[in-house]
């Protein structure tokens, strides 16, 4: 403290570091909750040996997001985002497992489609890594990868909205898991605070958008959850048009 009891810039810096680390740790915890939230879905897929109406696109988006954000958090791109790199490394492992299971139990058309998406994601990530390493200026490299990571984050946060049409059509939240939406909201809010304390625009802007989208998803869930549960008018294993 200063002589008048006010906090000095040094004290403010350390307080902001503590708050940043606390928000980052909370974000890591909620992110793990997000990563494990599809487990009940995949238990059902394995049990029924069918992907039914479930979409594999959210896991494609999540894998792309985790790969690019992992790269953004690495010391080769940014030297103050270790928590971003570690949590997204774990996310990469989870998404790969989910996609392998999805491809295994998908019908032939979706199997080919999802395999193509997976190979495209791996190829795109390799291009991003190789291309960014060709940028000699560290600040420009961070901006370039930061823009890509921000775009992928927004895509990931918005990906659950693809099931809204199905929810409205069936008047059921069966295919919009509550804990997936809740974990997304909590994680994005935590990393919004992390980005603000770290003064990192590439983290707080997309996670701010993710927070808003999370609120929308939860609102939709509770709206349709209150509606009477009607039986679906079509079989669960009907092919997706």
List keywords for this structure.
241 residues, globular
How would you sum up this structure, described in words?
The protein is mainly alpha-helical and 241 residues long. 74% of the residues lie in helices and 0% in strands. It has helices spanning 9-36, 39-48, 57-73, 82-105, 108-133, 138-158, 164-170, 178-197, 201-225. Helix 1 runs antiparallel to helix 8 and helix 3 (57-73) packs antiparallel against helix 4.
Binned, the helix content reads: over 70%
Quaternary status: single chain
Shape: globular
**Biggest sheet character:** none
User: Uncertain runs with pLDDT below 50, 5 residues or more?
Assistant: 230-241
How many strand elements? 0
The number of helical elements comes to 9
Radius of gyration using CA atoms only: 20 Å
Mean pLDDT: 83
Topology, please?
Elements: H1 9-36, H2 39-48, H3 57-73, H4 82-105, H5 108-133, H6 138-158, H7 164-170, H8 178-197, H9 201-225
Helix pairs in contact: 1-4, 1-8, 3-4, 3-5, 3-6, 4-5, 6-9, 8-9
Short recap of the structure:
This protein is mostly helical and 241 residues long. The chain has nine helices and no strands. It is 74% helix and 0% strand.
């Amino acid at each position: 403290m200063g002589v008048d009891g006010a906090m000095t810039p040094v004290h403010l810096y350390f307080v902001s570091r503590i708050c940043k680390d606390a928000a980052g740790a909370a974000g890591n915890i909620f992110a793990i909750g997000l990563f494990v939230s599809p487990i009940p879905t995949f238990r059902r897929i394995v049990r029924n040996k069918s992907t039914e109406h479930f979409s594999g696109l959210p896991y494609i988006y999540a894998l792309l997001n985790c790969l690019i954000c992992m790269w953004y958090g690495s010391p080769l791109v940014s030297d103050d985002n270790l928590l971003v790199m570690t949590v997204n490394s774990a996310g990469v492992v989870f998404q790969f497992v989910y996609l392998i299971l999805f491809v295994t139990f998908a019908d032939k058309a979706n199997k080919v489609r999802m395999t193509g998406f997976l190979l495209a994601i791996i190829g795109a990530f390799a291009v991003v890594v190789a291309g960014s390493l060709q940028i000699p200026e560290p600040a420009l490299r961070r901006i370039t990868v930061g823009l890509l990571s921000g775009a992928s984050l927004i895509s990931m946060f918005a990906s659950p909205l693809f099931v809204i049409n199905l929810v409205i059509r069936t008047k059921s939240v069966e295919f919009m898991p509550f804990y997936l939406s809740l974990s997304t909201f909590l994680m994005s809010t935590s990393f919004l605070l992390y980005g603000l304390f770290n003064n990192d625009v590439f983290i707080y802007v997309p996670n701010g958008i993710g927070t808003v989208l999370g609120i929308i998803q939860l609102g939709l869930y509770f709206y349709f959850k209150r509606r009477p549960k009607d039986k679906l008018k079509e079989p669960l294993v009907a092919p997706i048009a």
